[in-house]
Write a structure and sequence with these properties.
This protein is α/β, with parallel strands linked by helices. Helices cover 39% and strands 19% of the residues. It has a single domain (3-148), classed as Dehydroquinase, class II (Rossmann fold). The chain has helices at residues 20-23, 28-42, 54-69, 88-97, 135-148; strands spanning 3-8, 45-50, 73-79, 101-105, 127-130. Helix 2 packs parallel to helix 5 (135-148) and helix 3 (54-69) runs parallel beside helix 4 (88-97). The two termini are 14 Å apart. Homododecamer.
């Protein structure tokens, strides 16, 4: 059975505590369970990974790219948090690894501070899901399976 990697970047380990008016009351554990349940419904295994460190996220993207090339993985759902708006290194990692990525944001970043309006990841993403709360993860997994699952 093929897999999908759900990656969460900096501060997403604080879900449920950090700005619940913006991000909701669900925890990262709740998000991960939603992702695994969604994957089960769609016939894929969902692996979850969170790091506050850019280098660890880059290493995970490289590993995912190898797994895609080996036919073991469909791709990555990636909420890079604030790195979305700052990290050329993550852009380069996605491009170099040739890994299909769905960029995801819990909040509508376009309705927030202007510095959040630009994404370094969007140009190398297969798609972008923004502003649907944690349900965006289920949408992203479904989208990744639909778009890339048959390739």
């Amino acid at each position: 059975m093929k897999s999908i990697l759900v990656m969460n970047g900096p501060n997403l380990n604080m879900l449920g505590q950090r700005e619940p008016g913006l991000y909701g009351h669900s925890t990262l554990a709740d998000v991960e369970q939603l992702c695994r349940d969604t994957g089960e419904l769609l016939g894929v295994v969902v692996e979850c990974f969170q790091s506050n460190h850019e280098g660890e996220l880059i290493e995970a993207l490289h590993k995912a790219g190898r797994a895609v090339k080996e036919g073991k993985m469909i791709g990555v759902v990636f909420n890079a948090g604030a790195y979305t708006h700052t990290s050329i290194a993550l852009y380069d990692a996605i491009k170099a690894a040739e890994v299909p990525v769905i960029e995801l944001h819990i909040s509508n970043v376009h309705a927030r501070e202007s510095f959040r309006h630009h994404s370094y990841l969007s140009p190398v993403a297969e798609g972008v899901i923004v502003g649907f709360g944690i349900e965006g993860y289920a949408l992203a997994i479904n989208g990744l399976v639909t778009k890339m699952g048959s390739k």
